[in-house]
Amino acid sequence: MAVSLESGRRYSGEIKIKRFCHKFGIDMDFSLVFSGVVDNAGVDQFLLHSINPSQMIKIFKDNSSFYLFINKNTTAYNLQAVVKEVSEGKVLFQVEEQSVSEEKRRFHRFYFCCKDLGDFIIQKEGKTVCDNVCIFELSRSGLGLINPCVGLLKVGDTVVIKNEEQNFEVEFEVHRISKKKGYEFMGGKVKKANINLINYIIRKYIKVSEEIINKTG
Fold first, then answer.
1. Cβ atoms of 69 and 52 closer than 8 Å
2. What is the distance of C-alpha 166 from the center of its chain?
3. Which of 190-214 are b and which e, b meaning 16 or more Cβ less than 10 Å from the residue's Cβ?
4. Which is nearest to 101 in space by CA: 66, 64, 69?
5. Following DSSP, what letter does each residue of 20-70 receive, concatenated?
6. Tens digits of per-residue pLDDT, 147-199?
């Protein structure tokens, strides 16, 4: 699929930062979201500038990859690019061949380490099933859990995920369960929540992104 970039237009994008999450010993990609103006700079090369937030310039490294989001005919696409050079607040990048993919997700997903959000409990029919659960994935309509209490839940169960200190409570329907490193990785749909999940994600995202950017020299 040929999707072209328009010179002088501002695009949104993301760059994935590899993190090691110590509690359950897993690697996680945290997506830093940004926007910037794109200008032509030669054959298949472009210049990204006027980046927002401006501190994001520290994240772009030579030969690293990032994605730009492009809308064409009401369809969303991800375009992968490779950084060639970073200089004076601008990023020279090259578009990779065969790098365009259709974005099929309805809502953007954000991935966190356990320390970012804290510990949660799972309750089923009013009884606590596990009190050491981690939320590692959040979107507007769903979430992903790492559950160390293996074998107590099944696909189709509806449970409550809670953190009383944060006044966080959602009704969660389990759609899938897989096992990795002795834990259950569970995904599913949020049926009901006592808070605005979008606002919650934004608060947590801002905190973690600031920590990552500040640690990057």
1. no
2. 21
3. beebeeebeebbeebbeebbeeebe
4. 69
5. EETTTTEEEEEEEEEEEEEEE-STTEEEEEEEESGGGGGT--TT-EEEEEE
6. 999 999 999 999 999 999 999 999 999 999 999 989 999 999 999 999 999 99
pLDDT digits (tens, 9 = 90+) for 1-35: 556 788 999 999 999 999 999 888 888 899 999 99
Separation of alpha carbons 91 and 50, rounded Å:
10
CA dihedral of residues 184, 133, 105, 99 (deg, nearest 10): -70
Strands 90-102 and 45-52: antiparallel
- How many Cα atoms within 13 Å fall on the side-chain side of residue 20? 2
The torsion angle over the Cα atoms of residues 134, 139, 142 and 148, rounded to 10 degrees, is: -10
Nearest to 113 by CA among 24, 216, 183: 24
Strand partners, 135: 145
* Rounded Cα–Cα distance for residues 217 and 213 (Å): 8
